[in-house]
Amino acid sequence: MDYSVGVLLRRAEKTVDMFACLAPFDLSLWACIAGTVLLVGLLVYLLNWLNPPRLQMGSMTSTTLYNSMWFVYGSFVQQGGEVPYTTLATRMMMGAWWLFALIVISSYTANLAAFLTITRIESSIQSLQDLSKQTDIPYGTVLDSAVYEHVRMKGLNPFERDSMYSQMWRMINRSNGSENNVLESQAGIQK
């Protein structure tokens, strides 16, 4: 027979977050990345506008702002692009952009793997003091048990220095003990 005292908590319900793929980065970082895509797209357009590439005979490639933005976005998500930029300044800019994209995507992948593998169980109750301080989770015990009598005697004692037991007794004794307490431990497990 086991005479030890234990605490039984209900398992936390798991919720599925539809936007969990955005969790590895903060909203401010996502905004910075979107702003950087727009800024680099504009810079690529301006570099090609100031120094247009020499097109081969029969080539119909145009370097519009839309094409530049699409090329920068496509290279960020590692899907390449259709517009060949041949000027040295643009190639250097795109080389730096690809390095930036590689670093951002690598850190995103590492953070996403960490978020998906670690289950985040946030239990705020680690001790009897934590249990007595919180009011969100109702708790009780088996009526007329040793734990019930111990908490009652300590909670009703006016000379007790620790207010933990008086707080616990107020929670346990709600509605004269009928709200949070059970008559036997099996009823508490099913509750």
From TrEMBL:
Keywords, comma-separated and alphabetical: Glycoprotein, Ion channel, Ion transport, Ligand-gated ion channel, Membrane, Receptor, Transmembrane, Transmembrane helix, Transport
Q: Which InterPro entries match?
A: Ionotropic_Glu_rcpt, Iontro_rcpt_C
**Where do the TM regions start and end?**
27-47, 96-118
Write out the GO cellular component annotations.
Answer: membrane
Q: How does it sit in the membrane?
A: Multi-pass membrane protein
Which residues does the UniProt record annotate as the domain Ionotropic glutamate receptor C-terminal?
27-172
Where it sits in the cell: the answer is:
Membrane
User: Which GO MF terms are attached to this record?
Assistant: ligand-gated monoatomic ion channel activity
Primary location: membrane
Instruction: Spell out the protein name for this chain.
Output: Glutamate receptor ionotropic, delta-2-like
Q: Which organism is this protein's natural source?
A: Carlito syrichta (Philippine tarsier)
